[in-house]
Specification:
Layout: E1 7-8, H1 26-29, E2 42-43, H2 45-51, E3 53-60, E4 63-69, E5 78-83, E6 86-90, H3 98-106, E7 112-114, H4 124-131, E8 135-138, E9 152-155, E10 159-163, E11 166-170, E12 179-183, E13 186-190, E14 194-195, E15 202-203, E16 205-207, E17 212-213, H5 216-225, E18 233-236, E19 241-242, H6 246-260
Parallel strand pairs: 6-7, 7-8, 8-9, 13-18
Antiparallel strand pairs: 1-2, 3-4, 4-5, 5-6, 10-11, 11-12, 12-13, 14-15, 16-17, 18-19
Helix pairs in contact: 5-6
């Protein structure tokens, strides 16, 4: 039997090629995620390609959202950020097919991949190999990386510039290595910061599916990590964006959260 990379159907994490599926998914077994009540199940990229397709939506001249339909696993969007210095894929989604590869190639390909936290690692190894792009993950989350057969660049400290003007920030949040990307006046935040449905406020959680709030110490670190960072727009992982006044929305929301602990 030819080894395949098995993908968890609940969180989308892709594991190293093997002749048999893993006994369990470490990401789902963590208290920030969950194991499907019907039991652990697996798929492969080849199977996903037969039942799902990806959509590339133009958000603005420099940003595209990439998501899978019908929704798969957590259902997040990846984002392709286009800059004069190269294109960045921010976060990953599990499905990757020929159509997606061709469309992204027409937009200039991918020069770097950066991921906010382990829930969005998905099939990063395949994305990395197909686009010949290194993947940037914070050192504090290194133990969550499920495979080593790709170009992985671990970074450390509070900030890392991966292309001119494009900086990763270790804001932590619901994972110690949780990262945010800053470019010009925008932030790509995954769900390290969760944009609320009103598009005027944001939230911070240790676990979204299990409704576990983030503690005060973590919120203070997240607040401090963005001190002096100028931004006006914020793009989250689920198609909710604050396109103006994001700095004010963030500051207000932090104070609202902190008031709960008083």
């Amino acid at each position: 039997m030819i080894p395949e990379s098995f993908i968890c159907t609940t969180c989308g994490t892709g594991y190293a090629p093997a002749t048999e599926a893993p006994a369990g998914c470490a990401v789902c077994e963590d208290e920030r995620q969950y194991v499907n009540p019907r039991g652990q199940s697996w798929t492969t990229r080849k199977q996903l390609n037969r039942t799902h397709k990806n959509i590339l939506d133009k958000v603005n001249d420099s940003l595209y959202a990439i998501y899978t339909t019908p929704s798969f696993a957590i259902g997040q969007c990846a984002h392709l950020l286009r800059t004069p210095h190269g294109n960045i894929l921010w976060d990953c989604i599990a499905n990757l097919d020929n159509s997606t590869t061709e469309l992204i190639a027409k937009l200039g390909g991918i020069q770097k991949i950066a991921i906010s936290h382990p829930h969005y690692y998905t099939t990063m190894a395949e994305w990395s190999r197909i686009f010949n792009a290194p993947v940037y993950i914070h050192q504090r989350d290194a133990h969550w990386v499920p495979r080593s057969d790709f170009d992985l660049r671990l970074w450390d400290g509070l900030k890392k510039e991966i292309l001119p003007g494009i900086t990763l920030i270790n804001s932590a949040g619901h994972f110690d290595g949780g990262a945010i990307l800053h470019y010009d006046q925008l932030l790509l935040v995954g769900d390290i910061i969760q944009v609320a449905p009103d598009l005027k406020t944001v939230g911070f959680m240790y676990s979204y599916p299990n409704y576990i709030p983030l503690n005060k110490k973590s919120i203070l670190h997240l607040q401090a990590s963005l001190n002096g960072v100028s931004f006006d727009a914020m793009y989250g992982a689920f198609g909710r964006y604050i396109t103006r006044g994001a700095r004010q929305a963030f500051d207000y929301s932090v104070e609202r959260y902190l008031s709960i602990f008083e």
